[in-house]
């Protein structure tokens, strides 16, 4: 591959700009011919309103923010020309100009000569000029390309809002004429009743090509216009009494709603609100459509079998089969419980059995529409009459993750392009179709709530549930920064992270994450030693094996009775361990792998949840917190995040914040992880502290009750010995830890790293 010198690049840019300018003039000339002498632009109107100059005769001063300059006499007129091919070309051309705007601005700032010749001698009054102004459009300024986009989206089932990319006087006049208008001055958003939609669309169409309307998809409108389905309470009488009688009022509502939606629904209540109970109640109501297939995570298959036997006693035991291995025969059982993995492997046999009712537990497992598991699930749902998806966190990072799940509930709602264009800011990029963004999230929330998703938070439906508080604990730096080498390594990671991008940055962050586990483990163990003295039951979550092992050693050394569940733990032993922790008062600690145990188990015996490591996914952390904070919890729960500053924790904490903001807009994430009190005094103005609330402490001394007061710095030789062990562990485990990290199918979450 040959490379260009900077002067060659500059030359190429100049040529490209000249070509674009020539094309622009050509298009404008043809537009002018096709419309006689009436070619005008909205610029004048826009400009006037923005600077308060309403005198059409007054020639306006040239502003660097103006993109095109129309003759003053024409400025007050807005042509009502219909869309011509020239217009379309013109708008795409203007979009191209927008793309090169930044380049041009750079050229100009370098003091370069104007990169292209103005046609016809540069008559500034009648000739368009290229604005090289600031990127930030001030309200009321003309948009590049002389047109604005007006995006319409639903904000409730009967109201829609309008987002415009700039000010347009006539468009505002149209808004003001709508009978149901409402203007929110803070957000500068107009909204209207759906009854005004048609009229607004017609009037705005008159402002073409200066106003480009993006309307609401018909499917969305139809959905909103449908008469609401009123759930019938009487259906509860048809459900197995043992289960129906146990349902809490909000669970009854959920069951009635799901039945009203004909048993095709995503039940996405917050974790621990009894989705299993609701799903089984719906399944029991539609038992004529069985056989029933329950697909869940490998570790929760047995617990589903137990729930079915407990809650649906009329289902004979021999009706229920749990698919545990590859060799097993898929029989005629009325109820089959399988893991996702087994479902994939037995696809053909499951297809033949034709399950009429399917439950997908932890359905976010199906978030990747290209994964084999998801395509298998889709095939099965296509032939099933009822499909119930259960997840407290249906999307872990972005709206795209909802698409495949929605398809299983209603394959006709929207296709991939429609959905991603509308809700994922889908666009063509150098690498193909990019659907990793988000757009029209308010509308997506409306649609989900209307028909597809049932979502209640603990706060809403279970206010009596014991409270949950969150704390961040900055680990003692003396136990993290044990020697110069550690400091140098972490500094180097921080530096590399700042200067890298894309995949390279992801790789660095993964290594940094693994290294952080190593350097933190000593301080984490010191913290655990103090916690053990409190004699309260607690859970400690970690991700890397090096951290899990260090904590295990620490607990064993302290002779604490604890359970450990990680990815290697067999599922039968897993439920035994859970029982031990729940029932034995002597068992004080549950050491859990963040990935293997963030869902599907109940550990309400714990009062404190400690996170020795962070995860880059807010949903994983929220799921993990809900192991103890769920129905059945009677004591307040404290979640403590142990963090070491100037490590990967800084970056990951930041990522969490960004992701949870997106998810909360769609209404599927109710937590604010950053809403926490801190229990250690910051020693300098590092990033983590910026997110601490309620207030930042600038004290350099440990605060009262600070974790620091418990710590004493260990002698240096002891540090060295420990570091040697850490180094060995690093060599042995680093590779497998990174692999495990990627195997989680969440590595794509790094794509929206924003640091
Ligand atoms: N109506 C009920 N009566 C008694 N206990 C209930 C009821 N509903 C739920 N529970 C209990 O609450 C806990 C959480 O229930 P379940 O596991 O169904 O919640 P979930 O929403 O599926 O949670 P997760 O999302 O974490 O899987 C369980 O221990 C369950 O036995």
From TrEMBL:
A single GO molecular function term of this UniProt record: four-way junction helicase activity
Extent of the signal sequence: none
InterPro entries attached to this UniProt entry: HARP_dom, Helicase_ATP-bd, Helicase_C-like, P-loop_NTPase, SNF2-like_sf, SNF2/RAD54-like_C, SNF2_N
One GO biological process term: replication fork processing
Composition bias type Polar residues, residue spans: 46-63
Span of domain Helicase C-terminal: 523-681
Composition skew (Low complexity), residue ranges: 24-45
Cellular localization per UniProt: Nucleus
Keywords: Hydrolase, Nucleus
GO cellular component: nuclear replication fork; polytene chromosome interband
Major location (coarse): nucleus
SMART domains per record: DEXDc, HELICc
All residue ranges annotated as the HARP domain in the record: 140-217
Gene3D superfamilies: P-loop containing nucleotide triphosphate hydrolases, Tandem AAA-ATPase domain
Superkingdom in the source lineage: Eukaryota
Stored Pfam families: HARP, Helicase_C, SNF2-rel_dom
Residue numbers spanned by region Disordered: 24-90, 105-141
Domain Helicase ATP-binding residues, every copy: 256-412
Family: Belongs to the SNF2/RAD54 helicase family. SMARCAL1 subfamily.
PANTHER family xrefs: DNA ANNEALING HELICASE AND ENDONUCLEASE ZRANB3 FAMILY MEMBER (PTHR45766), SWI_SNF-RELATED MATRIX-ASSOCIATED ACTIN-DEPENDENT REGULATOR OF CHROMATIN SUBFAMILY A-LIKE PROTEIN 1 (PTHR45766:SF6)
Protein name: SWI/SNF-related matrix-associated actin-dependent regulator of chromatin subfamily A-like protein 1
Organism in which the protein naturally occurs: Drosophila yakuba
Lineage, opening ranks: Eukaryota, Metazoa, Ecdysozoa, Arthropoda, Hexapoda
């Amino acid at each position: 591959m040959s490379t260009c010198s900077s002067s060659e690049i500059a030359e190429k840019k100049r040529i490209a700009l000249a070509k674009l300018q020539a094309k622009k003039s050509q298009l404008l000339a043809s537009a002018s011919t096709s419309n006689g002498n009436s070619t005008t632009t909205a610029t004048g109107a826009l400009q006037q309103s923005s600077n308060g100059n309403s005198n059409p005769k007054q020639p306006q001063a040239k502003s660097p923010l103006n993109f095109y300059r129309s003759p003053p006499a024409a400025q007050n007129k807005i042509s009502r020309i219909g869309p011509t091919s020239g217009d379309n070309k013109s708008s795409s051309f203007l979009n191209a100009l927008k793309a090169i705007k930044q380049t041009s601005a750079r050229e100009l700032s370098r003091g370069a000569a104007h990169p292209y010749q103005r046609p016809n001698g540069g008559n500034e009054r009648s000739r368009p000029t290229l604005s090289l102004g600031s990127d930030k459009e001030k309200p009321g300024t003309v948009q590049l390309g002389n047109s604005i986009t007006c995006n319409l989206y639903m904000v409730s089932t009967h109201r829609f809002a309008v987002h415009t990319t700039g000010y347009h006087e006539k468009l505002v006049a149209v808004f003001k004429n709508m009978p149901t208008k409402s203007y929110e001055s803070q957000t500068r958003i107009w909204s209207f009743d759906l009854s005004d939609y048609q009229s607004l669309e017609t009037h705005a169409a008159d402002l073409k090509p200066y106003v480009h309307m993006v309307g609401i998809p018909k499917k969305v409108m139809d959905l909103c216009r449908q008469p609401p389905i009123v759930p019938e309470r009487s259906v509860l009488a048809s459900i197995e009494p043992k289960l129906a009688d146990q349902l809490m009022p909000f669970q009854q509502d959920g069951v009635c709603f799901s039945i009203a939606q004909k048993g095709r629904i995503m039940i996405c209540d917050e974790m621990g609100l009894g989705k299993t109970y609701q799903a089984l109640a719906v399944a029991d109501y539609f038992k004529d459509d069985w056989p029933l297939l329950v697909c869940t995570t490998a570790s929760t298959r047995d617990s589903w079998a137990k729930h079915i036997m407990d809650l649906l006693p009329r289902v004979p035991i021999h009706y229920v089969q749990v698919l545990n291995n590859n060799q097993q025969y898929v029989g005629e059982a009325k109820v089959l419980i399988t893991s996702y993995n087994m479902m994939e492997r037995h696809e053909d046999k499951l297809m033949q059995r034709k399950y009429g009712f399917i439950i997908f537990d932890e359905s976010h497992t199906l978030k990747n529409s290209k994964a084999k598991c998801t395509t298998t699930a889709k095939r099965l749902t296509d032939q099933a009459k009822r499909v119930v998806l259960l997840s407290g966190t249906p999307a872990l990072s972005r709206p795209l993750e909802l698409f495949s799940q929605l398809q299983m509930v209603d394959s006709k709602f929207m296709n991939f392009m429609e959905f991603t264009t509308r809700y994922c800011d889908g666009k063509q990029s150098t690498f193909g179709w990019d659907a990793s963004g988000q757009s029209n999230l308010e509308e997506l929330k409306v649609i989900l709530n209307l028909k597809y998703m049932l979502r209640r938070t603990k706060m809403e439906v279970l206010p009596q549930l014991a409270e949950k508080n969150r704390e961040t604990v900055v680990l003692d730096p003396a136990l993290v920064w044990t020697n110069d080498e550690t400091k140098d390594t972490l500094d180097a990671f921080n530096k590399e992270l700042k200067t890298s991008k894309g995949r390279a940055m992801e790789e660095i962050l993964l290594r940094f994450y693994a290294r952080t586990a190593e350097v933190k483990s000593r301080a984490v163990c010191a913290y655990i030693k103090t916690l053990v003295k409190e004699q309260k039951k607690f859970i400690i979550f970690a991700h890397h094996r090096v951290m899990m092992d260090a904590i295990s050693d620490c607990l064993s050394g302290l002779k604490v009775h604890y359970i450990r569940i990680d990815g290697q733990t067999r599922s039968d032993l897993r439920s035994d361990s859970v029982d031990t922790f729940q029932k034995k008062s002597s068992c004080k600690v549950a050491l859990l792998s963040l990935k293997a145990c963030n869902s599907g188990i109940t550990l309400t015996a714990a009062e404190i949840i400690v996170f020795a490591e962070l995860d880059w996914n807010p949903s994983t952390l929220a799921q993990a917190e809900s192991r103890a904070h769920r129905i059945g919890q009677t004591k307040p729960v404290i979640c403590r995040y142990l963090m070491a500053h100037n490590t990967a924790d800084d970056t990951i904490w930041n990522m969490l914040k960004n992701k949870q903001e997106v998810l909360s807009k769609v209404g599927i994430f109710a937590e604010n992880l950053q809403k926490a009190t801190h229990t250690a005094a910051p020693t300098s103005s590092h990033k983590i502290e910026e997110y601490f609330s309620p207030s930042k402490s600038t004290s350099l001394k440990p605060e009262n009750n600070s974790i620091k007061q418990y710590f004493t710095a260990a002698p240096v030789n002891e540090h060295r010995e420990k570091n040697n062990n850490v180094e060995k562990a690093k060599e042995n485990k680093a590779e497998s830890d990174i692999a495990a990290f990627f195997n989680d199918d969440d590595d794509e979450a790094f794509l929206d790293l924003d640091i």
